[in-house]
């Protein structure tokens, strides 16, 4: 916890020192013609540091700032990365999306602190999920079945990204909900679990219809965490027979998905990238060569050539970082992101609901990051995922901010009970007086 002044100051110095070192590397090793090209980037990064730190300290009261400092550290590092790819400049668009991510983090934190309130509005979360699915179906008619984006001219966004925080909240469960089970045939099943399974199957079908199978692993990871949390609840009435059936169904689904996957998925599973360097394996070949050329310490900020390849700042951003900054720096940023996800698990959350919520968020972001890195390194088929908080993208960055706020909420939750209506409160007071009179 960082309400201690000394610890707060040390954390501030750590964030500022890290960004100053990276900006110094840009000055000393960067590809620029005039030092003035570095000024906008330096002013933007250090300015955001100071504004956010002062805002947290003097205008925002909370128990801990650990998550805030880590998030600020990672986002401004990503601004430096994105501003140096292919030449030193300032990525104003990415900078704005990072600020939006910080704002969304605080909004999500305030909205998800009270799990009792979230339980009472869960039906509205299902409605919101249904609305997004409806929008995706409408866009299929207007823009084409395989179009995943909505273009408003001044802004583009991907509706499926916003399903992630909603689905994670639907996956979160409380001890109270664990007790609400009914026996159907030979199994104890909760109504909420059936609705969650229906929501996951609906997402699966819509993603299959839209040919957006790359994002399915994130939803599957969140759903798997929800199932495990329900099984592992100490007093849950869950039979071994049900566990065996779930595992069998899961195995059948995986085999069927691989067998009946669309042609482009089959190609990615079977392609030999080095024998098809100018076809399906082009991006992965270029990404691997960029990692090798970068070595441990990189060519230097702005000296990379991978930026000329499609999706260099999004889907294969790990390779772009390795080429310009080196493999060690790429590992360091991955360490920071993993620390952001693990920290809420080290400091035990204060409710079962927040525990399951944190596990769902961590599962989504770890799977998303792993698919990007392993795909860039050709350890798995290329999926086109983005690294959370690092890759370019407005929808992805806002979603990551919302998920980060949910992680933060697990560290400092509130437990306010729903307010009793005034008439009901008066009746309780009157009944209390009556009981005292009788005594």
Q: Provide the helix percentage.
A: 55-70%
What oligomeric assembly is this protein in?
Answer: single chain
What letter string, H or E per element, gives the SSE order?
HHHHHHEEHHEEHHHHHHHHHH
Q: Strand sequence of the main sheet, in spatial order?
A: 1-2
Structural class label: mainly alpha
Low-confidence stretches: 1-6, 433-439
Average pLDDT taken over every residue: 81
Please report the number of helical segments.
18
Percent strand: under 5%
Number of strands: 4
Number of domains: 1
Radius of gyration: 24 Å
Largest sheet: 2 strands, antiparallel
Molecular shape: globular
Question: Kindly, what is the distance between the CA atoms of the first and last residues, rounded to a whole number of angstroms?
Answer: 48 Å
Short description:
It contains 18 helices and four strands. It has helices at 5-29, 39-59, 66-84, 92-112, 115-120, 122-143, 159-171, 175-179, 191-209, 216-232, 240-259, 263-270, 282-294, 317-325, 327-346, 352-376, 394-409, 422-438; strands spanning 150-151, 156-157, 182-184, 187-189. 38% of the residues are buried.
Could you explain how this protein is built, in words?
The protein is mainly alpha-helical. It has one domain (5-415). Helix content is 67%, strand content 2%. It has helices spanning 5-29, 39-59, 66-84, 92-112, 115-120, 122-143, 159-171, 175-179, 191-209, 216-232, 240-259, 263-270, 282-294, 317-325, 327-346, 352-376, 394-409, 422-438; strands at 150-151, 156-157, 182-184, 187-189. The strands form 2 sheets. It has a two-stranded antiparallel ribbon. The protein has a two-stranded antiparallel ribbon with strand order 3-4. Strand 3 (182-184) and strand 4 form a beta hairpin. Helix 6 runs antiparallel to helix 7 (159-171), helix 7 runs parallel beside helix 10 and helix 7 packs parallel to helix 17 (394-409). The chain starts with a helix and ends with a helix.
């Amino acid at each position: 916890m960082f309400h201690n002044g000394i610890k707060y100051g040390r954390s501030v110095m750590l964030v500022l020192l890290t960004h100053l070192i990276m900006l110094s590397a840009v000055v000393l090793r960067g590809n620029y013609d005039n030092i003035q090209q570095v000024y906008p980037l330096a002013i933007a990064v250090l300015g955001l540091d100071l504004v956010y730190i002062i805002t947290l300290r003097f205008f925002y009261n909370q128990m801990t700032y650990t998550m805030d400092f880590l998030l600020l550290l990672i986002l401004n590092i990503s601004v430096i990365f994105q501003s140096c790819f292919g030449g030193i400049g300032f990525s104003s668009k990415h900078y704005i999306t990072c600020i939006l991510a910080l704002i969304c983090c605080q909004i999500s934190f305030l909205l998800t602190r009270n799990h009792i309130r979230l339980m009472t509005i869960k039906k509205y979360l299902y409605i919101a999920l249904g609305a997004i699915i409806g929008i995706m179906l409408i866009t299929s008619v207007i823009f084409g079945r395989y179009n995943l984006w909505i273009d408003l001219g001044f802004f583009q966004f991907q509706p499926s990204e916003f399903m992630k925080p909603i689905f994670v909240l639907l996956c979160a469960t409380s001890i109270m909900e664990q007790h609400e089970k009914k026996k159907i045939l030979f199994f104890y099943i909760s109504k909420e679990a059936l609705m969650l399974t229906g929501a996951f199957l609906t997402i699966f079908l819509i993603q299959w219809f839209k040919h957006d199978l790359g994002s399915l692993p994130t939803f599957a990871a969140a759903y798997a965490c929800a199932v495990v949390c329900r099984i592992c609840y100490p007093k849950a009435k869950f039979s071994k027979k049900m566990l065996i059936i779930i595992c069998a169904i899961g195995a059948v689904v995986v085999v069927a998905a691989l067998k009946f996957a669309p042609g482009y998925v089959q190609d990615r599973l079977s392609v030999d990238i080095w024998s098809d360097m100018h076809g399906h394996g082009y991006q992965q070949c270029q990404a691997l060569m960029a990692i090798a050329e970068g070595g441990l310490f990189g060519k230097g900020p702005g000296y990379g050539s991978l930026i000329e390849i499609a999706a260099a700042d999004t889907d294969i951003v790990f390779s772009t970082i390795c080429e310009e900054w080196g493999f060690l720096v790429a590992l360091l940023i991955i360490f920071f992101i993993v620390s952001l996800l693990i920290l809420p698990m080290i400091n035990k959350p204060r409710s079962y609901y927040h525990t399951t919520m944190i596990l769902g968020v961590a599962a989504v972001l770890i799977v998303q990051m792993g698919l990007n890195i392993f795909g860039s390194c050709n350890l798995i088929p290329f999926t086109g995922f983005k690294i959370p908080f690092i890759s370019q993208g407005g929808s992805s960055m806002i979603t990551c901010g919302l998920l980060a706020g949910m992680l933060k909420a697990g560290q400092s939750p509130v437990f306010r009970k729903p307010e009793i209506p005034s008439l009901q409160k008066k009746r309780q007071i009157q009944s209390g007086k009556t009981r005292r009179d009788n005594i």
